[in-house]
Amino acid sequence: MLLELLRPEQRAMLLPGGRGGRGNASFKTGTNKVPKIAENGEEGPEMWLELELKLVADVGIVGAPNAGKSTFLSVITAAQPAIANYPFTTLLPNLGVVSFDYDATMVVADLPGLLEGAHQGFGLGHEFLRHTERCSVLVHIVDGSSQQPEYEFDAVRLELEMFSPELAEKPYVVAYNKMDLPEASENWPSFKESLQARGIEPFCMSAATRNGTHEVISSAYELVRENAANKEEGIPGPVNLNYVADMMQKQRTAPINEFEISYENSTKTWHVVGAGLQRFVQMTNWRYKDSERRFQHVLEACGVNKSLMKLGVKEGDTVIVGEMEWVWHDAPDTSGPTSRRKWAAESVE
């Protein structure tokens, strides 16, 4: 993960654009008033990114498929999610707002049902779990009419923990649903006793008849208020959201004298690789003759020629720098009394 945007108006730069190339006026000297040379603009970097949207809600309603989550949301808010008596009626999160007073509201998200193996992507898997990460409090609804409500409760808790241990540590409310059905009413005492033995105080309700729903959402609201107070105490300081772009820019401004050379014996080809050289070759406008002379000077100054000769480059070998391919020639150097090898300006298109 590169970064997260968690607050309104936050912005981050991931990729900096390429700098513009210099015109011929930048290369003017006292002896050359009208230089025939110019640069191309620098190409911008590229990157494949996966953008992931996570709902930011105060309360997330979790539970197994068909536990009554959407019905509960429709009862406590004005939201109208799809409701039916079969699993996975909810395929996308639904949002609703609960109003307590004139200035007290709470955003509640009804999230798709959770199957065993969801932390590995089974069912709606990660599509469901990623949204729970941004909820402050969870309301865990258990289907009281299922054959094993305790097993269903433990299975969902395990999936949350397997996906992210932080999810298992979030404050939550357990709501035992469908008390209007005889089988749920019969299972309630044993379910309640089992959870109380673990230190968890569950609520019972019937979302269909709205019986007990107010107690559940009120308890969740109290947890939201407590959690908000704790968050205010530990708000982190400002974070540099442009660090990805800074890192990319640092890589692109690598010194031109930092390079590596490799040799392919079968093709007699030398590869000179370096971010600085790559950038220089890309920005060089080869339509101007003076560009080749400047390129030769840079190769000499940054040590490429010296390194090639030390490694044993020979007459006729191919040398590739960036996207350009050149041929090495032995030629006398008239700058000194001794003869040494020199890279002739002969490009291969």
UniProtKB/TrEMBL annotation:
<protein>
    <submittedName>
        <fullName>Uncharacterized protein</fullName>
    </submittedName>
</protein>
<dbReference type="InterPro" id="IPR006169">
    <property type="entry name" value="GTP1_OBG_dom"/>
</dbReference>
<dbReference type="InterPro" id="IPR036726">
    <property type="entry name" value="GTP1_OBG_dom_sf"/>
</dbReference>
<dbReference type="InterPro" id="IPR031167">
    <property type="entry name" value="G_OBG"/>
</dbReference>
<keyword id="KW-0460">Magnesium</keyword>
<dbReference type="GO" id="GO:0046872">
    <property type="term" value="F:metal ion binding"/>
</dbReference>
<dbReference type="InterPro" id="IPR006073">
    <property type="entry name" value="GTP-bd"/>
</dbReference>
<feature type="domain" description="Obg">
    <location>
        <begin position="1"/>
        <end position="56"/>
    </location>
</feature>
<dbReference type="InterPro" id="IPR036346">
    <property type="entry name" value="GTP-bd_prot_GTP1/OBG_C_sf"/>
</dbReference>
<dbReference type="Pfam" id="PF01018">
    <property type="entry name" value="GTP1_OBG"/>
</dbReference>
<feature type="region of interest" description="Disordered">
    <location>
        <begin position="17"/>
        <end position="39"/>
    </location>
</feature>
<dbReference type="InterPro" id="IPR006074">
    <property type="entry name" value="GTP1-OBG_CS"/>
</dbReference>
<keyword id="KW-0479">Metal-binding</keyword>
<dbReference type="GO" id="GO:0003924">
    <property type="term" value="F:GTPase activity"/>
</dbReference>
<dbReference type="Pfam" id="PF09269">
    <property type="entry name" value="DUF1967"/>
</dbReference>
<dbReference type="InterPro" id="IPR027417">
    <property type="entry name" value="P-loop_NTPase"/>
</dbReference>
<keyword id="KW-0547">Nucleotide-binding</keyword>
<dbReference type="Pfam" id="PF01926">
    <property type="entry name" value="MMR_HSR1"/>
</dbReference>
<dbReference type="GO" id="GO:0005739">
    <property type="term" value="C:mitochondrion"/>
</dbReference>
<dbReference type="InterPro" id="IPR045086">
    <property type="entry name" value="OBG_GTPase"/>
</dbReference>
<feature type="domain" description="OCT">
    <location>
        <begin position="251"/>
        <end position="330"/>
    </location>
</feature>
<dbReference type="GO" id="GO:0005525">
    <property type="term" value="F:GTP binding"/>
</dbReference>
<feature type="domain" description="OBG-type G">
    <location>
        <begin position="57"/>
        <end position="225"/>
    </location>
</feature>
<keyword id="KW-0342">GTP-binding</keyword>
<dbReference type="GO" id="GO:0042254">
    <property type="term" value="P:ribosome biogenesis"/>
</dbReference>
<dbReference type="InterPro" id="IPR015349">
    <property type="entry name" value="OCT_dom"/>
</dbReference>
